[in-house]
Design a protein that fits this description.
mainly alpha; 11 helices; elongated
Length: about 210
C-alpha cells in the first residue's frame, strides 16, 4: 500500500509502460515483476522501486483515471509567450505591492500572493505542467505550487519564502487576505515580504530564461 504520492519520475515510468503495453499493461507489469524482467524496461529502476514499496495489490487497485489525469498534466508544451505573460504580470503585481506597502498593507499582501502564484505557475509551465492542469489542480494553492516547483527543480529560493507562503496560502485560497490585517494586525512585515517576492521573481526569471 502506498504511503506517499508518486514522484514524477515514477509516474512517467508507469505512463510509458502503459503506453507500450496497452490495455493489459498491469498484467504485463505484474508478470515482469514476478519474473524479474522489469529490469529490461525503460525506467526500470522506478518500476522496481514501485514493486518494492507498493506491490501487486496497489498496482491492481490503481485507477485508470489517476494515470489519465497525470498524462494530462505532463501533456503541457511550454508556450514561451504564455510563460512570459505570466512572468510579466507577476512582476507587475510585485511592483504594485511595493508601491502600496505603507498605505495599504493588506492590498500589498494580496498583490504579493498573486505575484507568487503567477511566477510559480510560469516555472511549472516551463517545466511541462499544462496550464489547464495547473488551473484545475493547483488553483490558488501557493503551498502546492511551491512544492511542485521545487520537485520540478526550482532552487536558490529565498529562505524566508516557505514561511511567507505558509501564511499567505490558506487566506489567499479563501479570498480572505484582508482578514489577516484586521484591527491593524500584521502577520508579517509586508516590506520584507515584498523584497522576498522580488528575489523569488529574479530566481525564476533565471530558471525559465
Amino acid at each position: 500500500m502506498m504511503m506517499r504520492d508518486l514522484h514524477d519520475e515514477e509516474l512517467r515510468a508507469l505512463l510509458a509502460f502503459r503506453q507500450r503495453h496497452g490495455r493489459c499493461w498491469k498484467a504485463a507489469l505484474l508478470l515482469r515483476w514476478s519474473a524479474g524482467t522489469d529490469t529490461d524496461e525503460p525506467g526500470s529502476a522506478h518500476l522496481r522501486h514501485l514493486r518494492n514499496i507498493a506491490g501487486p495489490r496497489w498496482l491492481i487497485g490503481l485507477p485508470a483515471a489517476t494515470l489519465d489525469d497525470v498524462a494530462r498534466r505532463f501533456a503541457g508544451i511550454a508556450d514561451p509567450a504564455l510563460v512570459a505573460t505570466f512572468m510579466a504580470n507577476a512582476v507587475g503585481f510585485s511592483r504594485g505591492a511595493a508601491g502600496s506597502v505603507e498605505i495599504a498593507p493588506a492590498s500589498a499582501a494580496h498583490s504579493l500572493a498573486i505575484a507568487i502564484e503567477l511566477a510559480l505557475k510560469a516555472f511549472l509551465m516551463k517545466a511541462g505542467y499544462a496550464d489547464d492542469w495547473n488551473r484545475v489542480h493547483v488553483r490558488h494553492d501557493l503551498e502546492k505550487a511551491l512544492a511542485l516547483a521545487m520537485e520540478a527543480g526550482l532552487s536558490g529560493l529565498p529562505p524566508e519564502l516557505p514561511e511567507l507562503v505558509a501564511i499567505l496560502s490558506p487566506a489567499y485560497r479563501r479570498h480572505q487576505i484582508d482578514a489577516l490585517f484586521r484591527a491593524g494586525a500584521s502577520p508579517f512585515a509586508v516590506a520584507d515580504a515584498s523584497r522576498c517576492v522580488d528575489r523569488l521573481l529574479a530566481v525564476i526569471s533565471v530558471h525559465i530564461a
